[in-house]
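REQUEST ID: PR-0412
SUBMITTED BY: lab tech R.K.
PRIORITY: routine
TASK: structure prediction, single protein chain
INPUT:
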Amino acid sequence: MASSLSLSKSSRRAARSLLGLAALLAGSFGCAAALPASTPPHQHWVPGYAFGLWGKADLDVRDDCPTTGAESVRIGTTWSTLLVSVATLGVYTPREVRVHCRAQ
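STATUS: complete
OUTPUT:
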């Protein structure tokens, strides 16, 4: 009965590998740089069409940060833009732009 509860060497090796991978993934999430939370970011959606192959958007960050200037600009996909892309079968594929202004 005791032998049926023990793990084989390959099972222990697989479990150890899985735990190592989980620790590596958990450690990689802590590497993101944090921005100061003094001002909320300005969010914009820029249009794209046909899975992002077509489309052009002009965005002037001086409209969002006229006196201090922009500290960072991030362009990417969020859950909401992904949901819109899936709902339109890739015909309309927007991207979200987040503009963080410098602190005064």
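NOTES: Helices lie at 2-5, 9-28, 79-87.
REVIEWED BY: pending
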